[in-house]
Each structure stands twice: as structure tokens, then as C-alpha cells.
Amino acid sequence: MNNIFCPSKNDNKKIYIAVLTKGTDIEAKDVTLEYRRKKEDEFFKYINIDINKSIFMHQIHQVNIVKIDENNINMYGGREKVVENTDALITNLKNVPLVVQTADCAPVIVYCDKTKSIGAIHSSWKGTRDKIVPKTIELMIKEYNADPSKMYVYIAPYIALKNYEVGEEVAVHFNNKTMINDRWHFDNGLEIRDQIINLGVLEDNIEISSLNTYDKEFYSYRRDGVQIGRMLTLGVIV
User: Fold this and answer.
1) I want to staple 123 with a disulfide (CB 3.0 to 4.6 A). Which of 23, 45, 127, 158 is the partner?
2) Are 68 and 93 in contact (CB under 8 A)?
3) Tens digit of pLDDT for each residue in 80-97?
4) Which of 157, 156, 153 is nearest to 201 (CA)?
5) Taking 80 as the threshold, does the pLDDT of residue 154 lie above it?
6) Is 210 exposed, middle or buried (0-12, 13-18, 19+ CB in 10 A)?
7) Beta bridge partners of 106
8) Predicted local confidence at residue 56, as pLDDT
9) Does residue 170 contact residue 186 with C-beta atoms inside 8 Å?
10) Distance between CA atoms of 218 and 187, rounded to whole angstroms?
11) pLDDT value of residue 147
């Protein structure tokens, strides 16, 4: 499939990461629920992962983090049994895919090689303001004794600074901002990077996608407004 991306620095031998985009053959406004589900089914078949064993979230732009373990894993799986009211998941279970859905926000996959634990995070500007990524890492430290210096972090495609105009009430919360044509613009990925470096993640272990969700092959709320499409970012311990 030509609309799947994988991180260039991750060899997919310990943790497999894949991103499903919209593709360029259809406009976001023309995407139906049936079309989106068909493409997602094709994606999971292509990467040889069972969608019904993959953990999806009903994301609400808050700092709610859920641990997936042997006690609750049977409660979730696929599109119909999602983790409600949640924006981050953590687990140390192998072969349990965690899925983030986005249309401009930053999807983040965190993997600790020392403890073989993973986090999957949806970080909107609100989530970044409230430090959802470092708080997820802190929970991984608490639950698994994870070591930030042994972590690899992938910040998957999100909307680029040049296209992400925000108001003063948003910009005031962040350092990674600049004025373009007298308007504030914000870089969500760089803000997340700085937050987790402060927590002890090594800069060389952070990979930030150079792709921009405002471009045609992605779903973009900022470009298209309300629409049914969402990009998928999946991470799984193998």
C-alpha cells in the first residue's frame, strides 16, 4: 500500500510502528465511514495484524491514561470495544497493538527497550499543554520501572508549524512558536520533544516525522474542517 509510512530510525524488530494516511486518490470531504473502514481493513491485512486484537481509544483531548494488562485486555479490541475517554495507553504485553487516531494532532509512540514496555499517545495542543506525553512516560516508570534514557520515541506526522495558526490564548502556553504574518504559529512535535528531553529521554532517541498532515495525503481538521477521516498510528511490541 502506498499510503503506509514507517519510521526510518526504527528497525521494526522490537517494536513495529506503522502509519496509515488518507492517500491522494480521494478528498477528505468525500470519505465515508464505509470507505475509511475498508482502507483500515486493508491496512491491517497488509501489515499482518489482527484489527480485532488492536486497542483503539475514544479520544477526548484530556490527560487520561489507561494501562492494558492481563486483567482488562479482554474488555477491548477492534473498533467496537474501544477504551473510552482516553488519550494514552501503556502496556508491556507482546503482540498487543495500540492505535492512535489523528487528523492534525501529534500521535506519539514510546518504547522502553530496557523494560519492553510501550506507550501510545494522542497529543493535541491541549494534551501537550497538560504534558500528556511526559505523564505517560512517568506512568511507565511507575508501572514498569521504565528508564527514559533507554526509550525510543516516534512523533508521527502532525500539522506543521507553518500551517498551524493559533491564538494568543494557545501560544502563551508554549515555547516552540513563532509569528508569521502577525499571527502565532505553534510546533506541537518540537514542544513534545523538549518536554520529554527534560524528563531524561535522549534527543538522539527521538524521531520526529518530517511529514505534514496539512498536505494532501493526510487527513487534516485544519485544512478540511469536520470530516470522518482519521490517520492511524500503530505501535506493537513484537
Assistant:
1) 127
2) yes
3) 999 999 999 999 999 999
4) 153
5) yes
6) exposed
7) 123
8) 98
9) yes
10) 17
11) 98
Take residue 235 and report the three cell numbers written for it. 505501535
Q: Which residues of 79-118 are buried (b: 16+ CB within 10 A; e: fewer)?
A: eeebbeebbbbbbbbeebbbbbbbbbbbbbbbbbeebebb
Residue keyed to cell 524528563: 199
Indicate the Cα dihedral angle 198, 56, 61, 128, nearest 10°. Answer: 20
Which three cell numbers, joined as nine digits, stand for 116? Answer: 519492553
Q: Exposed/middle/buried for 200, CB within 10 Å: 0-12, 13-18, 19+?
A: middle
Q: Is 141 helix (H, G, I), strand (E, B) or coil?
A: helix
Tell me: pLDDT of 2 over 90. Answer: no
What is the per-residue DSSP string for 74-109? GG-BEEEEEESS-SEEEE--TT--EEEEESSSEEEE
Give the cell for residue 40.
Answer: 483500515
